[in-house]
Amino acid sequence: ISFIDLRQIEDDFLNKIDESVKLTKYSISNKDIKLYCDIVAQYSTVSNYSLLDLYAISQEDKETQFSHFTTLCERVIDKDDIHLEKLMTPIPIFNKLIMNEEENKNHIITTLMVTSLRLEKYSLIPRIFSLTSHNSELLILLVDTFWQYFHTATGMNTIEMSNAETLLKYIKQYDTSHKYDNRLTQLISLCHDLYLSSQWKFQRNDAKKRTMPSRILEFHDSPMEIIRILMELNPTFYQNDIRQVTWSLWEKISISLQCPEKETDYMDLLSLHIDYSLVYDDFAYASSHIDRLLEDEIDGKRHWLTIFQVGKYRSFESDSINLENII
């Protein structure tokens, strides 16, 4: 039966019968039939249900009705999202679901968000957030979905990474307490620096796995190793200004991997710069930066091997500073 046929039946037949009159077989009143007609007319997404189907749903238990309601949500979101907000108002066939109860309302909103994310209908996210003032659960759904895409992305230029970055825009919009957005923003920025930037190489050509952005998370227990890899694969990386380049990158690494910054971080980075300057036979760089390590007694002891290597190198080139003086 088409919408027009339903309206015609309602106008020509149902409206002329008292609403209290019941169909004996189903114990359903004329008023109920008119409500079902209205539902079919309002929701084109349920047009493949017969009136008898709708009546059967109204007789189901709460769990089964919610399953049918979830299906309705999927159809509305996928094909007819103009009716999205209407799903928050009581629908007679779902009589076991009390729509004005807070718990049910939150359950419905959560269902709408989960369905929208699964169908990648991201433009509906603001509309769903507008349905409630309790945004924390919805925000967690966005964050969880972000991580799902991030972990499955095989590269930066993939649909999964594009979806993750799209979700990050909404996370930044609704994470007013900045519980998640700063870390995720720094993580995506770090991935761009390491995997998309033309400034330096990070992955080796023979290791396909290394192109997965999620590999960054494997360095949680050894974050300094990321800098070491950059030094190893990029012969001029050590020449970068430590404060402007290496330290800036290190801050992204620390936030992304949730590794608290330590007072010794800067000296650890400086030591790496000096170590790799010697690897690439740049004694001028090493000699011009070693004094900074020597200024601090504690750092000097922690990085004695770096100081030893520079002193050993200098002992063959110059008498101005020798190994004994450094030690």
What does this structure look like?
- By secondary structure, the protein is mostly helical.
- It is built from 16 helices and two strands.
- It has helices spanning 3-12, 30-42, 51-58, 62-79, 102-118, 125-129, 136-152, 159-174, 181-196, 224-233, 242-256, 265-279, 283-295, 297-302, 304-315, 323-326; strands at residues 22-23, 28-29.
- A two-stranded antiparallel sheet has the order 1-2.
- A hairpin with a 4-residue loop joins strand 1 and strand 2.
- Helix 5 (102-118) runs parallel beside helix 7 (136-152).
- The longest helix is centred in the first third of the chain and has 18 residues, at 62-79.
- It is rod-shaped and about 100 Å long.
- The model is unreliable at 321-327 (pLDDT under 50).
What features would you highlight for this structure?
327 residues; disordered C terminus
Secondary structure: elements and pairs:
Elements: H1 3-12, E1 22-23, E2 28-29, H2 30-42, H3 51-58, H4 62-79, H5 102-118, H6 125-129, H7 136-152, H8 159-174, H9 181-196, H10 224-233, H11 242-256, H12 265-279, H13 283-295, H14 297-302, H15 304-315, H16 323-326
Antiparallel strand pairs: 1-2
